[in-house]
Amino acid sequence: MHPMEQAGLFDTMPELVPACAPGDVLGERYCREHSPQARRPHGITLTPDWLVERMLDQVQGSGRFDTIVDPGAGSGRFTLAAARRFPQARIVAVENHPEMLAILRRRVADENLAGRVQVVAQDFREATFETAGRTLYLGNPPYVRHHDLSESWKDWYGRSLSGLGVSGTRLAGLHAHFLVAAAARMRPGDELCFVTSAEWLDNHYGGALRQLFARGGRVALQAVGLWLADAGEPVFADALVSAVVLHLAGGDGSGLCRLGCITGADLQDSRQLAASALLEAPRWSPLCRRDGLEDLGGRQLGEFFHVTRGQVTGSNEVFVLPSDQDLLPQTLTVAAVTRARELIDGAVLSQSGVRGLKRVVNLPRDLERLPEPHRDAAEAFIAQAQRRGAHQGYVARSRRPWYAVDMRAPPAAFVSYMGRRPPVFVANPWGVSYLNIAHGLYPHEPIAPSALERLLQHLNTATSVGSGRMYGGGLAKFEPGDISRLRVPAGWAEGLS
């Protein structure tokens, strides 16, 4: 009997798994018996075999590696594939999840690789092992959000970034920790090839990583390959993140980086860019797409409009009222866009549609200035809201006074900002306000309605999902900065200013 079976670790697996069974039978069974929700706190998701092989194809062209390190080895897909692909290399497989560790050890033993594969039962960030000669760091680090990481590990991440010569926020997920831990271990001649969540390509915490991988840093390494999963072809069917393959090698920031997409079970190049171009780009995901290089002609939308998020009430169930409400005088509420569907369906464009919008309570800070009947109604609403606990929420506690929502002034136009389709740009001819389900466009200078309409038509036609920040399942999010960076055709600049 296998020693892991003696330990009882596979008692929950009814069928006997034969030695040298083809494929990752145990890993797949574990994932069938544990839901994605149950695995998510540990960042456990299996990398498709085809992607493992494509990543090995990429690094094999770099020559011989003496040591290969799999930092989050899981069930051993990268470990075993690398052992087959590089028969002369010593493999270090690092894993600390007990059940994954047991599966990993069994698969290593079943393939008679115990003499070549060192299994390290530690967290990669603090693991102790030796590397010799030219080393490749290869694998799929676990994805765990920063909300689920301890403060001590967040402190570790901040210190580790500083040690590499960059600064950034501590609020990064576990996959970013593994990237930094690997970069800190790398020596001249070493390489790295990871598949990770793609969030770091675009978001705030990823700025430090982008800086490190574009300019070299103290460790003298840079991105030489970057392939982003197409929105319609998610790599991990059971994970709510988009994937990117990153290939790092030695460099001082002066080399070229291959950029492309993970599509059709392959890594396909779209272009090559210098590291200096990567440094200048505020986001990297658009660079990976075939149509992702923005037209450098014209000017940015932000030169003509200020883009602002919609208002947060802190308690929509209290502050958002039906269109026909009679709880408060109409002067103490404002018609507002409260659902993205109201933009997509064009409700804000017609008078009848506007009449059907919900109304948001918008009390003044000083109630004493209100006429007595209005003041009495406002005070009655406040008392009712307190009984419902509206004053105890995080947003309300930060307001002075807590009941003053301070709704945004009506913008010239709205922009939806999240979905599996490009953003929708809609004019606001009836002057309604909006909650944080949309962004508002506020012109720096007066703009004629005809010019605005022409611009919005262009943006609705020319803006792609790829201009946003991609998440799992093809979901795209557009921050105000992303909208501000959209291009306005050069010939239109005069009509907008």
Entry summary:
By secondary structure, this protein is α/β, with parallel strands linked by helices.
Description:
The structure is a single chain. This protein has 497 residues and is of the alpha/beta class. The chain has two domains: 3-288, Vaccinia Virus protein VP39 (Rossmann fold, 3-Layer(aba) Sandwich), CATH 3.40.50; 303-363 and 405-496, Adenine-n6-DNA-methyltransferase TaqI, Chain A, domain 2 (Alpha-Beta Complex), CATH 3.90.220. The protein is built from 19 helices and 22 strands. A hairpin with a 2-residue loop joins strand 8 and strand 9 (266-274). The longest helix has 16 residues, at 372-387. It is elongated. The termini are far apart. Residues 1-21 and 292-297 have low confidence and may be disordered.
Distance between the termini: 79 Å
Radius of gyration: 27 Å
Q: How many discrete structural domains?
A: 2
- Estimate percent helicity: 25-40%
Q: Regions with pLDDT < 50 over 5+ consecutive residues?
A: 1-21, 292-297
